[in-house]
């Protein structure tokens, strides 16, 4: 299986090591030092933490193993009005990829790493050794969400344990260094993941991909120069934008496998159609 080979990359293996290390120290060092794993508070916290960490790991597997969405070789753009009255519209619909020499559906982009056109491409992510696109974007977003929760949780456990620990009598320096190192590591991880999560919350609320965000900056600059204003064509309403990514059923928003709401990824509702 070629998909399995995606795991054989240094960044992916690094993610596994960091996850494994964070899980191990949170449970067997910090919760153990704080209240003891056998206590009711200890076992409850380790149970919740294990559940969240498993969700995180599951999302990670999904992100790596799910194909982001490739353009079918039979794809031909659906040009409704073939009359030559709107040449600009037809030109836009007939975008071709130079490298794949196939038509590019709206929101699709060519990934230089995957050497393929990716549907609703967000970006190529080395940490999952895969592109983030139409079919694995929800899993990617939930991975950011659960990873932020897990690292914040771990942070709280480190602080709780450090506050309760009796540092005085022993006088050994090594546990202190270990605590500080882990604390700094988890804090930077939490800030990084939290920032990335916030960024993708912003993108979802505006129904944008990372690529489209940068395209929009250029497009609005060009529009301003000619006295116009730019509006992202796929921005419907905030709530509708959320449902297009996470699904119409609010109770399934946090479920990474619930992706039945996703259409083929070859066309997307634009604000012109809905209003
Ligand atoms: Zn291409
Ligand atoms: Zn890629």
Automatic annotation (TrEMBL):
Its EC number is 2.3.1.225. Residues 93-215 form the Palmitoyltransferase DHHC domain. Pfam families: DHHC. It is a multi-pass membrane protein. The DHHC domain is required for palmitoyltransferase activity. Belongs to the DHHC palmitoyltransferase family. PANTHER family: PALMITOYLTRANSFERASE ZDHHC16. This is S-acyltransferase.
